[in-house]
Task: inverse folding
């Protein structure tokens, strides 16, 4: 269900800049160092939607009070930052075996996604559409637009098309969510997740074979990512929940999210130097590095202790 609704919402979000530009005439070009108006308005709409639905959830979701036994147990525990830190550290040291194996898979999966999110759109604009955010030559576009930069225009078209392929990815995520329970019943959770990660990784690697003449192939790339994303949103948590003690589910779910955030922080801090010095700022290669990480994560998934 989570994959279904995330996919549905993301379809709308990914399409908004293109919709505003092509259906409502909002300009998609801007001066150097500025954000195009269609992108700005998309963020405003997203912010309003985010705040609205958070408030709706806060005011409509009922909380169930703890039992008398749970209240006594909570009162018996010592509070404070130090004791809280000790509890977290103790939980980390006593992590179930399956959680440790899943943590390693997550540690490689999420930086793979991070690299895709970071480099895919500019890669399409720069290397597939042959544009440039800075530009070099000029062309007149429509009567009401002054002379604009040709390369900048191609870059804008490329990034808009990348947004459409993101939207298609989320459609696939939405639809594939219905198929995951069937696959899991036939293959088991871990092999379903392994297969989905493998498909996503291969999809990201295949971007290297796409150029302006085969631009529609990007829909295939993002369809593969949509399959992986649908599994990433559900399968790890499904596998994790079955191995956690009931009274520690909250703390272990929080710790599990460490292995999403930490690798993304590491990638944000250090991958830029790798991109500049090793990959020579080729964003296509950055996306492909994400594909490699997803494939390695898929291989490690096979080591996870079999689920019930």
Result:
């Amino acid at each position: 269900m989570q994959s279904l609704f995330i996919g549905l919402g993301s379809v709308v979000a990914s399409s908004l800049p293109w919709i505003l530009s092509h259906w409502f005439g909002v300009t998609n070009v801007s001066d150097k160092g500025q954000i195009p108006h269609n992108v700005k308005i998309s963020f405003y709409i997203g912010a309003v939607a985010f705040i609205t639905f958070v408030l709706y959830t806060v005011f409509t979701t009922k909380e169930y009070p703890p039992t008398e036994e749970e209240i006594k147990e909570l009162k018996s525990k010592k509070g404070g930052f130090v004791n809280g830190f000790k509890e977290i550290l103790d939980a980390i040291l006593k992590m179930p075996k399956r959680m440790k194996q899943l943590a390693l898979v997550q540690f490689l999966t999420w930086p793979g996604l991070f690299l895709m999110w970071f480099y895919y759109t500019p890669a399409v604009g720069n290397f597939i559409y042959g544009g440039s955010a800075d530009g070099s030559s000029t062309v007149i576009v429509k009567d009401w637009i002054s002379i604009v930069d040709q390369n900048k225009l191609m870059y804008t078209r490329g990034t808009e098309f990348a947004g459409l392929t993101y939207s298609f990815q989320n459609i696939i995520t939405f639809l594939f969510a219905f198929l995951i329970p069937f696959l899991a019943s036939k293959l088991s959770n871990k092999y379903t997740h392994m297969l989905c990660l493998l498909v996503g990784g291969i999809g990201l690697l295949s971007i290297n074979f796409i150029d302006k003449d085969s631009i529609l192939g990007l829909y295939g790339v993002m369809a593969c990512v949509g399959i992986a994303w649908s599994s990433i949103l559900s399968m790890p948590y499904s596998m994790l929940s079955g191995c956690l003690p009931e009274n520690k589910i909250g703390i272990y779910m929080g710790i599990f999210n460490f292995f999403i955030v930490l690798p993304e922080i590491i990638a944000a801090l250090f991958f830029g130097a790798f991109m500049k010095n090793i990959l020579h700022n080729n964003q296509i290669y950055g996306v492909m590095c994400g594909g490699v990480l997803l494939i390695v994560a898929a291989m490690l998934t096979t080591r996870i202790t079999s689920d019930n």
Summary: The CA atoms of residues 60 and 89 lie 35 Å apart. The longest helix spans residues 97-128.
